[in-house]
Amino acid sequence: MRIVDLTQPLSPTTAPWPGEPPLRFEEQANVPADGYYARRIDLHEHTGTHFDAPAHFVEGGATVDEIAAGRLVVPARVVDVSGQVSENPDYAVSADDILAMERKHGDLAPGEALLALTGWDMHLADPARYVGDLRFPGFGADAAELAVERGLAGIGIDTLSVDRGCDETYPVHLAVLGGGLWQLEGLVGLDLIPAVGAMLIVGVPPLVGASGFPARVLALVP
């Protein structure tokens, strides 16, 4: 079993959503002076590689701590649209892209996770490009609706948001979170896992009342 880490390092240099403050560390103690090392951390719930719970967009929706652990360890499927994105930074993963993946690798099953490989994580070292003027790919509304119809556990992507940067009304957030699914944003390394066959582990802490939180996301590949 090969373990693939799909998580970007989390630090004050991690690109936040425009308008949100970056993560901040404050040292509280260090080994020479205090005998131990500890810091306080100030961060937005949706920073870096992170998990979105339905409560992020749905009044009364499930918060992070209310997501059953069994829905955080699930088979992963990958739809590769990196070729389309290289020609169009505003590309929307479509239902047709997912159906084409299904024809090649078999139908999505209820409880699986669908991850979109766009290749956008190649820009992480250049925050101006990674965030830019909110020009980055995402899922399309028809793909989001298909994910809900298939009864998936959740969806994920290697960009700042499951919605395209240019989609100001957040149709994917509304459809997916409204359907009770979870979301992963800011993933990395999706090109290292196969289209089918990997097991996804979403290591998000059960923070009470949280709309989302940074997560350590791992894929187990046979």
Question: What features would you describe in this structure?
Answer:
- The protein has 222 residues and is of the alpha/beta class.
- It has a single domain, classed as Putative cyclase (Glucose Oxidase, domain 1).
- The chain is built from six helices and 13 strands.
- The chain has a nine-stranded mixed beta sheet with strand order 1-13-11-5-7-9-10-4-12, covered by helices on one side. It has a two-stranded antiparallel sheet with strand order 2-3.
- Strand 9, helix 6 and strand 10 form a beta-alpha-beta unit.
Keywords:
alpha/beta; Glucose Oxidase, domain 1; nine-stranded mixed sheet; 13 strands; 19% helix; globular
- Radius of gyration (CA) equals 17 Å
Largest β sheet strand count, sense and barrel closure:
9 strands, mixed
- The helix-strand sequence is EEHEEEHEHEHEHEHEEEE
Q: How large a portion of the residues is in β-strands, by DSSP E?
A: 25-35%
CATH topology: Glucose Oxidase, domain 1
Characterize the quaternary organization of these chains. single chain
Which descriptor suits the 3D outline? globular
Compute the average pLDDT.
Answer: 97
Tell me the domain tally: 1
Estimate percent helicity.
10-25%
Q: What is the count of helical runs?
A: 6
- Write out the CATH superfamily name: Putative cyclase
CATH class: Alpha Beta
Low-confidence regions: none
Question: Topology of this protein?
Answer:
Elements: E1 2-5, E2 24-29, H1 31-34, E3 38-42, E4 50-52, E5 73-80, H2 82-87, E6 92-93, H3 95-105, E7 113-117, H4 127-130, E8 138-139, H5 141-149, E9 154-157, H6 171-178, E10 182-185, E11 196-203, E12 212-214, E13 216-221
Parallel strand pairs: 5-7, 6-8, 7-9, 9-10
Antiparallel strand pairs: 1-13, 2-3, 4-10, 4-12, 5-11, 11-13
